[in-house]
Design goal:
Low-confidence stretches of chain A: none
Order of helices and strands of chain B: EEEHEEHEHHHEHEHEE
Oligomer: heterodimer
Number of helices of chain A: 15
Strand order of the largest sheet of chain B: 6-7-8-3-9-10
Largest interface: A-B, 17 and 22 residues
Mean pLDDT of chain B: 93
Largest sheet of chain B: 6 strands, mixed
């Protein structure tokens, strides 16, 4: 701590590295948000070839009859453009009768839900969409259809709150029936089809058996299915970006190594400069344990201060990063408590580890050699 | 007859440089009684400082034994030796070796950290030691704010604050002007006479050696 500038630079160096670590971990967490939010008792049934191919609406009743299935609902990716193409959030046509039973994480007031149920072009939006576009109950949302061409007008009748931080607060949901009615008139060959089924099961342990039973129902049909747990389904989306996510994961741990090197270097320099003083302390009777606590203590103070600076800077950095991204890129983007905890514990361990080399060097230096040392 | 406080028995010391063995001390035998003020003199490289270091327990002999108050310090391991030094030896170095970021009071308090004394008691002891060396008005001065003579007196206060039986001084006046050197020597003489401290001093300065009760000459690693 004697060289104030060096100490300050070290603390800020650690701070920047801790901030970068926390930011990278947060991005990785955001990628995995869908997986994190997955419920163990939900299965997804999709077209066996690809998610983009629809499934017949008629499958619903047959799936519902599979033993162990508790409830079946469905959804369809609507896409469309709101305001302009840069405004991104999920827009889903859902079976309004059952969807919210299967997804209890979307918290909506009963009155609003009843209003939504009564109106065919009503929509429920996430609180984040309402905040982002300053929307209130009763406001109109105009979507320009792309998958389903034309102008689509929706009335905001409900604003849901996410149950926890892993729930996407920026999804728009409206009646599948409303879309279906229009599709029947304008493109009848596309009618009677849904994007995917969401199957709630009674016992998560039966997931494999039920998935197999569902897929068996539609074997050799025009639209074979692939059923898997919601977690596995979400992980499929990540597989495309797995290389990037792996790289970010590796980088985040490389940063831990960098912090260790920065602090280790500072501690080695400090200890070398004070070889003479440590020799005096040894001559006065300071034991190896005492000297270790002196050096490790200094190292820990630097690492704790650096970690604190980094963690304090993390929240604004994460907010700034999210702002810099296109709207809705990561609907769930927050610093997990585990990230803070991991960064804090890493700081402590690094503080301890960085002192090991200088301590070893000081303890192995004979007092008479140390007294001759010119720092 | 009273047993000597320090008994150096057939001590030899050599250093190894690559494959070369360099003898520094050869078969030294020496006795020092409690309350003695002994000066070692001799040319550079004669082994004075090495002998002092061995007696003070900061180096180990290649051969022989050193008994201090009945304890064979050559048999102690590093941890035991550190504890022994903290209780029995006070060090006075040529270049004072004060910690520059600590005040005079804190420097003197340093050896007391190793004792079970409370912070308040440590402060009181350190203040007393500084009063003994005549620096009661310099408690909160940093070493850079003191003269060489004052720094050495702080170092002496640090050496006596734990009330050790032995004080070892390696060229204590080597870095001081004549007046400061006189002050430091007078102080050491007082510590020897009034507090009965056993003092071993290495010096090149004959005037410093005159203050000692006895002088031993070293020549090429042997006592003359």
């Amino acid at each position: 701590m004697r060289h104030k500038l060096r100490s300050v630079l070290t603390i800020f160096g650690i701070g920047v590295a801790v901030m970068a670590f926390a930011l990278l971990r947060t991005v990785v967490t955001a990628w995995h948000a869908g997986v994190e939010a997955s419920a163990a008792n939900r299965l997804i049934t999709r077209h066996a070839v690809s998610f983009v191919f629809p499934l017949p609406l008629a499958y619903r009743d047959r799936i519902a009859q599979v033993p162990g299935v508790n409830k079946v609902t469905y959804a369809m990716w609507f896409s469309g453009v709101y305001i302009d193409k840069r405004q991104f959030f999920a827009r889903l046509a859902v079976d309004s009768e059952t969807f919210f039973d299967v997804y209890p994480e979307f918290l909506i007031e009963r009155e609003q839900f009843e209003m939504f149920q009564r109106e065919r072009n009503a929509a429920i939006i996430g609180v984040e969409i309402a905040r982002r576009y300053n929307l209130k109950l009763g406001d109109i949302m105009l979507l320009e259809g792309d998958v389903y061409p034309g102008q689509w007008e929706f009335v905001v009748r409900g604003i849901y709150q996410p149950r926890d931080q892993t729930t996407d607060p920026a999804t728009m949901m409206f009646h599948f029936k409303y879309v279906e009615e229009r599709v029947r008139q304008e493109a009848p060959d596309r009618a009677g089809q849904v994007g995917w089924y969401i199957v709630r099961i009674a016992n998560p342990d039966d997931a494999a058996r039920i998935s197999e039973a569902i897929d068996k129902l539609f074997e050799n049909s025009r639209a074979e299915t692939k059923t898997e747990t919601e977690r596995a389904f979400q992980q499929n989306f990540l597989s495309a970006a797995s290389a990037v996510i792996t790289a970010m994961n590796v980088m985040s741990f490389v940063i831990i190594g960098i912090i260790l090197l920065v602090l280790g270097n500072t501690m080695i320099m400090s200890a070398r400069e004070r070889t003479h003083e440590y020799a005096v302390l040894k001559a006065l009777g300071f034991s190896g344990v005492k000297l270790f606590s002196l050096i490790a203590g200094e190292s820990l103070i630097l690492s704790i201060l650096g970690s604190a600076v980094g963690l304090l800077g993390t929240l604004p950095a994460v907010a700034g990063f999210q702002k810099a991204l296109p709207k809705g890129w990561f609907p769930v983007f927050y610093v997990k408590p585990e990230t803070i905890l991991f960064a804090g514990i890493s700081g402590l361990l690094i503080g301890f580890a960085a002192s090991l080399i200088p301590v070893r060097r000081i303890l192995s230096t004979r007092i008479v050699e140390g007294l001759r040392h010119i720092g | 007859m009273e047993r000597p406080l320090i008994e150096v028995q057939n001590v030899s010391k050599s250093y190894r440089r690559d494959t070369l063995e360099i003898p520094v001390l050869k078969n030294i035998t020496l006795s020092v009684h409690e309350g003695a003020f002994l000066a070692f003199m001799g040319p550079s490289g004669s082994g004075k400082t090495t002998l002092l270091n061995l007696i003070a327990g900061i180096d180990k002999p290649s051969e022989g034994r050193i008994l201090v108050a009945g304890t064979d310090v050559t048999e102690l391991n590093e941890t035991e030796l550190a504890l022994w030094r903290s209780r029995n030896v006070g060090f006075i170095f040529q270049f004072y070796n004060l910690i520059p970021v600590l005040t005079a009071l804190e420097n003197v308090e340093l050896p007391l950290i190793l004792t079970p004394l409370s912070r308040h008691e440590r402060r009181a002891h350190a203040q007393t030691a500084l009063s003994v060396v005549g620096l009661a008005d310099r408690l909160h001065h940093y070493p850079r704010q003191l003269s060489g003579g004052q720094e050495q007196r702080v170092a002496i206060a640090r050496a006596i604050v734990t009330d050790p039986a032995i004080l070892v001084a390696d060229e204590p006046t080597g870095d001081l002007d004549k007046v400061s050197a006189e002050e430091v020597l007078a102080l050491m003489e007082r510590l020897n006479r009034e507090l009965n401290k056993t003092i071993l001093m290495v010096t090149h300065d004959p005037r410093a050696a005159e203050r000692a009760s006895s002088v031993r000459q070293l020549e090429k690693g042997e006592l003359a």
